[in-house]
Amino acid sequence: MKNSMFLKKVKMKLYQLKSNVLTISNGHHTFALTSLRADVFILNKMSYIPIGTILNERFVMERHLGAWYGESCYHGKDSQDDKQIVLKAFVPADPRIQAYVDFFKECSGMQGIPTFIAHFSTDDSEFIAHEFNGVVLRGILNARMFHISLENTIRLGYRLFRILHAIHLKGYVHKNIQPLSIVCDVGPDEELVVNLSYFGHAARIDELPSNNRIILGPHHSLHVSRGGAYSRIDDYISVVLVMLSCQTINPFDFNTNWHLTHVQKKENFHANPYAVLTPETMWLGDLYLQLEEMRSDRLSHLQVMAALRRAVPGFDPQTAITYRNAADSVYHLID
After folding, report:
1. CA 321 → CA 155, 177, 245, distances in Å?
2. pLDDT tens digits for 260-299?
3. Which CATH superfamily hosts domain 54-131?
4. Of 14, 18, 106, 240, which is least packed with CB atoms within 10 Å of its CB?
5. TM segments (predicted)?
């Protein structure tokens, strides 16, 4: 959808565009979107690729998933080995391209990380191709009205922390953990597998600030939202906020508390996370504050995993995620 159509649809007008920050207003509130390329909000320069097109002599385009912030995404098939893939198209020189390439050099094929397949160019776009199976967590949560059982929420978080710990040991931070970057799929043993699928902002832990700026969202920490340097703790806090979303607790959602800015919502939660929690999720408030306290010391992965094991007495978070297939959709509905 072209930017002008988008702005019309949400009844907002272009307010200001400068210094790589797009600011839009609906007459009552102003929102600043920090962009890694200011022009991607004005015009998607990449051409739409017809379904059935074969790219790089092997990748068959099957479905256009959409375009966000200058990235156009397609589902397809690798004709060489008949595997399902995702192709992500960017305008040339987009810094996310190199982020993908560098990350996959170190982490491709690790548990929870898809296998990198190719990086290639066409006339007006550069593509990243990697394996893709399953459905995004956001779709599952939508189908479940943003609520899954506490036990499955803990199982999901346990698996995400384990994936991130492995990434961190490789020297990388993910920087964009949210329901749209998490994928669930049924494995060979019929267990539900949790994977990550987006790495456009992944970077080395010690990397200096670059022009590959993060699009701030509900699942980023207060520290990052205020412009602080990203660390492993911020990845972990994002998982805590995803777990809250799985329990229908979304205090940072764009449609919640419109009178507050993104940072103000984060500040309110940080000051008293328990105010929005249920009795069953108070321990997630404890975990959030524990992670924030670790900023002054160091992240302890073992303490985080121990907190998940203590959340429900006698419960093992390593047990299988329970789910059912919806007869009328492709989603694996987590119980």
Report:
1. 6, 19, 17
2. 999 999 999 999 999 999 999 999 999 999 999 999 888 9
3. Phosphorylase Kinase; domain 1 (3.30.200.20)
4. 18
5. none
